[in-house]
Amino acid sequence: MRLSLADVEHIAQLARLELSPEEKELFREQLSAILDHAARLQELDTEAIPPTAQVIEWRNVMREDQVTPSLAQEEVLANAPEAREGYFVVPTVLEDHA
Amino acid sequence: MDDLCRLTLHEAKVLLERGECSAVELTEACLARIEQVEGRVRAFLTVTPDEALEQARAADEARARGSSAPLLGLPVAVKDVISTRDVRTTCGSRMLEHYVPPYDATAVVRLREAGAVLLGKTNTDEFAMGSSTENSAFFATRNPWDVERVPGGSSGGSAAAVAADECLAALGTDTGGSVRQPASLCGVVGLKPTYGRISRYGLIAYASSLDQIGTLTKDVADAALLLELLAGRDPRDATSADVEVPTYTAALTGDVRGVRLGVIREWLEHPGLDPGVAAAVQGALETLTALGAEVRDVTLPHSEYALPVYYLIAPAEASSNLARYDGVAYGFRASGAGDIWELFARTRGAGFGAEVKRRIMLGTYALSAGYYDQYYKKAQKVRTLIKADFDRAFEAVDVVVGPTSPVPAFRLGERVDDPLQMYLADIFTISVNLAGLPGISVPCGFADGLPVGLQLIGRPWDEATLLRVAHAYEQATPWHARKPDLS
After folding, report:
1. What's the pLDDT tens digit per position in A53-84?
2. Total domains in the fold of chain B
């Protein structure tokens, strides 16, 4: 498995990661090597094997929908990089990507 | 009273109950030890001496009023991926360097309710991704047995702090071996309970189908004591188990006669296994046989695939979990972004370190259109086969045994530039997370002066048998009582 530079850039775009040219080259090498290692899984015939997403036996853990106190707004906003009047502040969202 | 920091939880508990020492004296002893060795060990990202002494004074007052909470006045440390209210929780990342959680993780609530004193937060590979603690964005932790070597990871700070007597015990987390492997490399006891045994509420997520909180302690009795307090259903974690929690401390009978132990042939004959580690594990099997356990071979034919399965599933889950770090609601934000898309990419590009970016990239790729079936779904199917191997083994034996780590502590810098080499540190631990089983590492000797760990793996929810066997072995051998020389 040999990833191209374009592959790396596509993945970085999906993951919303800005990478330097050096990082792109390094990850191209390293991810290719890791995926080569992972290719060993293709040796196994898993046609009839169901996938395991998690190991606990129970599912659909239900509870009553009850209103309980939550964190105070100022506590939540205390960690925000920028906040104003009870809102998180971010740069332009809609201009070019509407 | 300089030696108070050397005590186990249960030893210190007895002294406190007899009035032979106070919680303040115990806490001061740990803080003095931190002062003495931390420049060389570097186990802590944050030490909270004022808060710790305040909690210790409150514990002494509570005892005077008649309280007998199970951990009252006992100083412990917490890995810095577990949320602590009003104490910064960095995950070893620039992304959360200044993040101060507004709430406690459930495991921390339970420690506080039991009366424990929190000394501080221990170093970790960034977001628990690593096997040496060198991936911390801040500094590398050193192995107390040889400060030129790694303590293992990702809970390397917790393991080193316990080994260096900077605390009596510590919490860690284990997604692919991150409690057991550093315990092995630092010569302490590391317990990873069954997936779902301890609430993950407030544990900052890495790979949610594998993450589990565990303990690093100076002996097995302390692991039992802590598990008893931490285990159990939590309404805030839907995956925490509604399964009865036995009195683990009562399970430590010292008797292993008739217990059936299965030795994993593939692991003992693994070409990457260090001869010194192999010899120590072989010696442990002889001791266990002499104690009356029945040792036989078992086979886990798919365990050789555990590494690639883990390095597809864990990064896939991580790529989703870590999408939340976008520079908006909390954590680091890159400056100078023109629009929100640039803000996301720049923040994540600058805020994450190399290993985290590598795993996000890998996971994103494994989940992306056109590759999902080939990588992610294939890995999930092989995960089924790995779990089935254990199910089959447990039809014939009660506990599965092998080495924890293929090698003793390696040198700082030796593997950090080669991700695949680093990943090989986890070959014997990750299949246990993939199968959701409980596992424990106990000291079983030394190789070239460095500690070696024996790994015991149990049936789901059967930590009691695991602890019983580990305790009987420990009590029959001198290894757990050895201390590194940091004078």
Report:
1. 988 877 788 888 999 999 999 999 999 999 99
2. 1
